[in-house]
Amino acid sequence: MTEHNGLPVKGYQPQSDEKVALVNRFKEMEERLLRELDSLGNPKTTSVMAPTKDGDVVTWRPVGDVDQRWLAIARTHFQEGFMALNRSVFQPGRVKLPEDEPHLAEEVRAALNDIAS
Asked: How many domains does the chain have?
């Protein structure tokens, strides 16, 4: 099993091939969904088509325009959902701050107080 180094960002850690493959699959799902949303938000599209099934035959019928505000809200929520899903797999950790070190804590508090005043 190969370990992939994490991003050079605090809190990220090496990841297995399996976790990278899983998140890449989620990224592809997200891209397909975002492209569907792009087509709904395209001003050249005069009406949105949706599949309907009549027996074994699938046909497309117009369903009318979509509310662009709600479409934008849906896009944001889908993006947040996929971000949360990917974070659930990669599990980035919290980072240590300078003030976590006892000998630096007083120094950092003093600097923060100087900035605040």
From this structure: 1
